Amino acid sequence: DAKTTQPNSMESNEEEPVHLPCNHSTISGTDYIHWYRQLPSQGPEYVIHGLTSNVNNRMASLAIAEDRKSSTLILHRATLRDAAVYYCILRYGNTPLVFGKGTRLSVIA
Amino acid sequence: DSGVTQTPKHLITATGQRVTLRCSPRSGDLSVYWYQQSLDQGLQFLIQYYNGEERAKGNILERFSAQQFPDLHSELNLSSLELGDSALYFCASNPGLAGTDTQYFGPGTRLTVL
Asked: Labelling A41: which of B2, B10, B69, B91 has CA 20 to 30 A away?
């Protein structure tokens, strides 16, 4: 499985933007970049995914480097509810998700 | 609420016992995935079923088995339980048709083996 590298933890102030980086230098042309997050005491939940172009949805934005070897999940205004572990996952087809250790995001009021 | 339900929420049992965890996927979803989350191993994929057939296998022990029934609900059976099997077990579902289908996770079953 292709691997991703994320910082272990990050901290943000409430209502400020957060940029969560992910490196995936061995990504193949058919791998989609998926982001999931896991809030405390809950199951993982989907955040966003993309292939080559930047993507936006109601939860976040995904910025993908031109060479696709890295990507950044952007939360435009962090809230306390965004405190979670964020997982960057490469996925080919409808395959199971391979979770790494993710980035634990803390949001300070 | 993801639409995926799991029962029971909590399960406490003794070593050597056998338990069954149940998952009801979202309405219309044909694919069910089981994941285990432990403190030392993180979130790990166990097994996937699609419309009643096993589709993919991950790090699932031989003591564990699963099945998906005609009504699409799934059960994960864990036998000869050991202390190390204590973990959160998540079920996820998706339509299973497209390569970019999002997986929707249930709230999990917390298993404690004493």
From this structure: B69
